[in-house]
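Study this:
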Amino acid sequence: MKYVGIQTQVWNNNLKSTILLLMFPVVLLGLAWLFIYFTRPEHHTIDDVHYTFAGAVPWIIAGVLIWFLIAWYANTSMIRMATGAKPLERKENKRVYNLVENLSIDAGMKMPKVNIIEDNSLNAFASGINQKTYTITLTRGIINKLNDEELEGVIAHELNHIRNRDVRLLIVSIIFVGIFAVLVQVILRSFIYSSMMRGRGGGGGGRNRGLVMLIALALAIVGFFITSLFRFAISRKREYMADAGAAQLTKRPDALASALRKISQKPKVEGVTRKDVSQLFIENPKESQKDLFSFFNGLFATHPPIEKRIAVLEQF
């Protein structure tokens, strides 16, 4: 894959971030209109639907904005809690710090923070939304089991995610997909609770309430599916671009290819169960698990197959 240049990639990702910021609320508002339409009283006309929707729009936008701001500024703490990552001090591992510092200088960027996950798996990821929060996180296993050239390739890969603004793009997608994920869970639990109450003879108007919840659940699932497709559409290419950038930065594509081979043998990080956080890693620990649904999982994968990434690196 041809490397298109850092400024072009940054511009492309900033544009995608803007499009995502616009598309996710559009999907949410569209589904809200459909909910009002399908649950309207029989005597209400389309004009009544438009009127009700117009009144709901400010509340929907306000709710999305509050959600976004909270998630945007809390994402660093959320990721750290989800992965169990802790700061790695320079005195604890000068080898890692020297590699990150030297590569940052070569890339012409400020050195990010360095975190470590105390796990024997081989994996790494970059995170953050600005210079104050940009962080590279490495597992204990990847530090101990890769040689200097291989680890340099992995760190360069993660630095390129930061330099290309990939991490910011992913945070945007994670936040908005999370809205629909929470909606699905809340509505599903409410529907189950309502069904249990009806079974016990409690609560009036059970049939109508159940129908409304079913419509809400169906639309929330549709929203989750559509926004997930947006996320998948922007996720795969970023890995190829970061690989290409790392090869250009280190001048050792073979070292990164070798690192990816080793990572593919043991990428699963114990304790990391959230799919949205898993997609940040250099190899998604959730997607690496093979099962009967591997083919279908591949259609919605956040990462390209690691074998293809290695093949591309070997062409440099």
